[in-house]
Amino acid sequence: MMESLQAHRKNEHVSLAEKLYSQSHANHPFDQVRLIHNSLPEMALSQADSSIKLGELNLKAPFYIEAMTGGSKQTAKINARLASLAHQHGLAMATGSLSVALKDPQTQSSFAIVRDKMPTEPVIANLGASADLEQAQKAIDILKADAIEIHLNAAQELVMPEGDREFFWQEHIKELVNQLSIPVIVKEVGFGMDKKTIAKLQELGVKYINVSGRGGTNFAAIENRRNHQFDLSMLNDWGQTTPESLLEARAIKNPDVAIIASGGITSPLDVIKAGALGASAVGVAGHFLHTLLHDGDDALDRELNAWQEAILRLLTLLGCHNFAELKQAEVVLSPELDDYATQRGL
Ligand code: FNR
Fold first, then answer.
1. What is the distance in A from the centroid of ligand 1 to the CA of 19?
2. What is residue 294's DSSP assignment?
3. Whose CA is nearest to atom 2 of ligand 1?
4. Is 69 in the pocket of ligand 1 (CB under 6 A)?
């Protein structure tokens, strides 16, 4: 049977994310952040604990596999491979947007496979911010999800030829946060957030904010490759990087709100730097997809082991017993990032 246009789009997103992967890391924004070495750690490696508590979610590692895919036969296979590895390593994983599964029930299994492979680890559902309560509940039920991400993707939709053109999201977000009984994470998709957005989300009652900044997968570039009607390539450098977004979030820190970092995380050192800039957890999408598609399942298996071990060693080097203690670690910003912070009054 022919797959739908939506299913075709899901396949294109994966293949274009992979095609543009190396290009997206030309100027790595996390190189603009340096950690300060401490010669007297006064702790043992065995004392380092990389597990985290993200509100009511207990995660074995400070990083998880971020929202990517589902909705077609090809992406069902990718979800199954990622979820098997997440299970093997005890990691959490978010699926791509379930909106396709709500429209076409035949595609539900391409998402549900993630829960099948991950009976005990946290699984995170994903939907756009125009979703209503009933749709969100249905998406949660398909995955028996432990949390749900609501994505904010105005920049992506406006570049997409078939994208949405109306963005009235605040009332929806407020309702979802008030009515759903599991954590609701509001996330960007790679364009970052500023302090006004973060403050507004807090006002709406959001307790988990994923700033998902520029510097990794670039959905303006991906959709520009798909859009042959109209040139919007001027948006290929749009948005705040992940370090910039974390500085924005830090300027209005609120102990009741967890900030999650994603966007351009490609190494355990990036995970640690995100923690030092105030992130409580870290999502990784494009880089793990690249390892899986380019190098294979065994390579991603080895990489997930290596990241977990490296994170323990980096925490020890910095004298931090756990990921939360990184918030006290000192950083130095590059002149460019420091200038951004000054101009923004951060
Ligand atoms: C994504 N991303 C994404 N985000 C989301 O909230 N819902 C979605 O359906 C998707 N789909 C999707 C497909 C593919 C192939 C990729 C690579 C990414 C965005 C993702 O969750 C993340 O916010 C950005 O990709 C930035 O992180 P990375 O890729 O730089 O680690």
1. 14
2. I
3. 68
4. yes
3-state secondary structure (DSSP) of residue 135: helix
User: What digits encode the pLDDT tens for the residues 52-80?
Assistant: 999 999 999 999 999 999 999 999 999 99
Q: At what angle do helices 335-343 and 242-251 cross, to 10 degrees?
A: 40
Residue-wise pLDDT tens digits, 203-236: 999 999 999 999 999 999 999 999 878 889 999 9
pLDDT attached to residue 2: 67
Residue 105 identity:
P
Query: Residue 78 is part of a domain; what is its CATH number?
Result: 3.20.20.70
Whether 189 lines ligand 1, by a CB cut-off of 6 Å, is yes
Write down the pTM of the prediction: 0.98
95 CA distance to ligand 1 middle (Å): 9
β-pair partners for 126: 149
Residue 331 CA to residue 325 CA, distance in Å, equals 14
What the block records as the tokens of 229 is 């009607």
Cα separation of 20 and 218, whole Å?
Answer: 8
Task: Decide whether any atom of ligand 1 lies within 6 Å of the 287 Cβ.
Answer: yes
Which token pair is 42? 């006064």
- Residue 217's domain comprises 5-343
- The tokens 């954590």 sit on which residue? 183
pLDDT for the residue numbered 22: 81
Say how many domains are in the chain: 1
